[in-house]
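Reopening this one. Same input as before:
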Amino acid sequence: MFTAKQYRAKAAEYTELLKTTSLPAEIREFRKLEQSYLTLAENEEWMADNREKINSPGADENRYGDAIIAQQGKDTCDPNKDSAALR
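Same output, byte for byte:
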């Protein structure tokens, strides 16, 4: 995984490439890539600043257990329900 600094360096490469082209398609592509890398850098910084707020896997052992049990309860056959549908 890249660091925010590495993402910003990559964005800077595309900033420099923007200065070397006059083709509209390349300008659009380089701006898009520049913005993508800047967004990745911002996201990486946010993740670094907020690690303690993020749930780690295994922190909540029953994260999906209740939902699975509830869904299984809905999927079980109710003999009265099925027989009513056949009438």
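So the earlier flakiness isn't reproducible anymore. For the record, The first helix runs from residue 4 to 18.
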